Amino acid sequence: MIIEQFKHFYFRLPVPARLIITILSITLLFGTIIHLIEPEQFPTVFDGIWWAIVTGSTVGYGDYVPLSTTGRIIGMLLILSGGGVITFYIAMFSAYTVKHEEDLSDGKVAYHGTDHIVIVGWNERTKKLVELIRRHDKKIDIILIDQTLQHISYQQIPVHFIHGDATDDFILQKANIPEASRIVITADSSKNEKQADHFTILATVATRGNNKSVPIVVEILSANQIENALRAGANTILRPNDFMSSLLFHEIYKTKSKPFESIIQLLANNQFHQFALPQEFEKKSFIHVMTKIKEKDYLLIGIIREDNWRLNPPADFQLEKGDILVTIEAW
């Protein structure tokens, strides 16, 4: 019964662990036997174990040598058995290391760190975001979840890749969402706007279910999905379509001196955010909220009310429940 339990336990261990246990068992066994056979040549069990390790690894220092025929036979058996096991261990360890690197690149390895940033979706915006984060803080870990990528090299893109669907709890757990410091969910450019927003909202729901307090930044393409994203648990909503439409409009009607280009470069160095109006700011003036928001290093530039944008409204403009604050955070 005990032997069966040990076999069950032993064969459930990873291969490297089994090899280490086997090597330790062999050296302990042969070290003890050689000590018992030639106690004068090997005064202690430790001396025997030392000899077994040196002999089994084929190093052969020669400080301990069996003199009797029986001792030499034990030595030959050790070389044949121990040397083969150690060689096999080195080969398996090398193969395990290579396999682990391949699994990392294929997105199969779970992440176990904390205070990391999780990004959902791989595209040019994500690539640029990774560059900006690395430039800002090289120590922070970035976890990328994507189901379209099959392989990504860490040497080329410094992220921990998780291959899978971000709406699946199993995949989110592999990214260790409960210990993340911030989540970014980007819109899937390969889908139409409605499908992309539905996936974003569903991923937000799944993410919020795994972490009740983590800030979630989402990219929404359709204005009518903003409220759904907020209800799903998003803290910040970005709408790239509106901003890009404004840029295209100004590009069409820009003057010959091209003054708007300098503004684009200025805005490129800032981070846009959209927040649902906190309850404490309801019925407050725009200038009052702007002052309070500025204390948190955000510049309030306007609001979204019923899908209508109002940039730089009058100072006494009263904010209402349901308003979305449009802000810029200095980088």
TrEMBL record:
InterPro entries: K_chnl_dom, NAD(P)-bd_dom_sf, RCK_N, Trk_Ktr_HKT_K-transport. SUPFAM superfamilies: NAD(P)-binding Rossmann-fold domains (SSF51735), Voltage-gated potassium channels (SSF81324). Keywords: Ion channel, Ion transport, Membrane, Transmembrane, Transmembrane helix, Transport. Residues 114-239 form the RCK N-terminal domain. GO terms for cellular component: plasma membrane. It is found in: Cell membrane. Its main location: membrane. It is a multi-pass membrane protein. It comes from the Bacteria. GO terms for biological process: monoatomic ion transmembrane transport; potassium ion transport. The chain crosses the membrane at residues 15-37, 49-67, 74-96. PANTHER family: POTASSIUM CHANNEL PROTEIN 2-RELATED-RELATED, POTASSIUM CHANNEL PROTEIN YUGO-RELATED. This is Voltage-gated potassium channel.
